[in-house]
Design a protein that fits this description.
This protein is α+β, with helices and mostly antiparallel strands and 396 residues long. It contains 10 helices and 15 strands. α1 runs antiparallel to α3, α1 crosses α10 and α3 packs across α10.
């Protein structure tokens, strides 16, 4: 039975996939700087006889797998490769050797797992049919997102996949499980950069100044109306400002300028554009009314991620075949963002979560933290279940 053969190969290849992951974890590279990572991925694929090309979106790698049975279907599998500017605090044998850079979002798992998928499917290519495009993507963590660039450069053409699957580590989910949600799943994400300019002076003489600190405070409060008064309660919306800093301000010095940074997230493109317009107007008019000026810049980021209803239902059923019903769980909407969303806006897509946590072993740290790690048993399940999902999605 093909399913059992995949499980056996996942078991057999597990030590090698762990080795791949640890190499990647020790040598992380930031977004759009994944030169050595891309080279490593390409060389591994070549060593298994899998044709591939490097250089898309900078350092992306695209491999092609073809089964030998008759089947004209084409799908894609995606794994991202970039790391984050975080100093790792874990004291492990495979700790990052690139100080200040860390695979704190699990992209080392995504890349090594997809390599594991490629190895399994390549060894079993006599037993399935169709074409699988392996997309090793750079730059997920940084705008404009490597996915958007790869799409512009033709990753969904020649050959053109009709469906795409992606997986992402999920520390709250125990190793041995996966989770997914059909329909809207993750939010769009825009970056907001605000500069409020007033007239600085002595802190004891505010009447001689136009205080940009006070003006900025009013803008922050006024903008909360975007969520509380303007957004439809049925449309998830988040507006958060995470950084505020003055230029030259002190305990007794009112600065000339204050800068503000934040993020806006939602799941409705029409409302997204309307909110951009309203935020800009509210900020500029609030500043003007207090005698200051406001430069309100919105960097449009990733769209919302939608899991195709029919494909996700099929993916869930196929996952249950591999894992059993109790190990395939429902997930709620998330207001985090992912540039896999660009793929989901182009072709039917399913983006699911791979359990990587283990409370008994203390592996519980969230992604984007300096203590993030995974239970490496996930590097057995990750390649195995995705290989099975790929074959079933192709219609084998």
């Amino acid at each position: 039975m093909l399913l059992n053969k995949i499980k056996n190969l996942a078991d057999k290849n597990h030590p090698e996939v762990v080795k791949l992951r640890r190499h990647l974890h020790q040598h992380p590279e930031l977004s759009f700087q994944e030169k050595e990572t891309g080279k490593y991925v390409s060389e591994m694929l070549k060593s298994w006889g899998i044709p591939n090309k490097r250089g898309m979106a900078g350092h992306g790698v695209v491999g092609i797998l073809k089964g030998k049975k008759k089947n004209n279907n084409i799908i894609a599998l995606r794994g991202d490769m970039d790391a984050l500017p975080i100093l790792e605090a874990n004291e492990v044998a495979y700790k990052s050797k690139n100080e200040g850079v860390m695979h704190a979002c699990g992209h080392d798992v995504h890349t090594s797992s997809l390599l594991g998928v490629a190895k399994i499917l390549n060894e079993l290519k006599d037993e399935w049919g169709g074409t699988i495009k392996l997309i090793f993507q750079p730059g997920e963590e940084t705008l404009p997102g490597g996915a958007s660039i790869m799409i512009k450069e033709g990753v969904l053409k020649n050959p053109a996949p009709t469906k795409i699957l992606g997986q992402h580590v999920h520390p709250p989910l125990a190793v041995g499980k996966i989770g997914m949600k059909a329909g809207q799943y993750m939010a769009s994400a825009d970056e907001i950069y605000v500069s409020v300019k007033g007239r600085g002076g002595h802190g004891a003489l505010p009447h001689d100044c136009i205080d940009p600190v006070v003006v900025t405070s009013q803008i922050v409060i006024a903008l909360q109306q975007i969520v509380s008064r303007y957004s439809n309660p049925t449309t998830p919306t988040v507006l958060t400002f995470g950084n505020i800093a003055s230029t030259g301000g002190r305990t007794n010095v009112i600065p000339n300028e204050v800068k503000l940074e934040g993020t806006f997230r939602t799941m409705d493109e029409k409302w997204r554009k309307e909110a951009h317009r309203r935020m800009k107007k509210i900020a500029e008019m609030t500043a003007k009314g207090m005698g200051a000026t406001c430069d309100f810049d919105i960097k449009v980021g990733y769209p919302f991620l939608v899991n195709h209803e029919e494909l996700t239902a099929q993916t869930r059923a196929h996952a249950i075949e591999y894992l059993g019903k109790k190990n395939v769980v429902d997930l709620p909407i998330r207001m985090t963002a992912e540039d896999f969303a660009f793929f989901s806006q182009k072709i039917p897509a399913t983006f699911y979560r791979l359990g990587t946590g283990n409370k008994k072993r203390g592996i519980t740290s969230p992604v984007h933290t300096n203590t993030f790690d995974v239970d490496e048993d996930c590097l057995n399940l990750g390649p195995g279940v995705m290989a099975w999902l790929a074959i079933r999605t192709l219609g084998n």
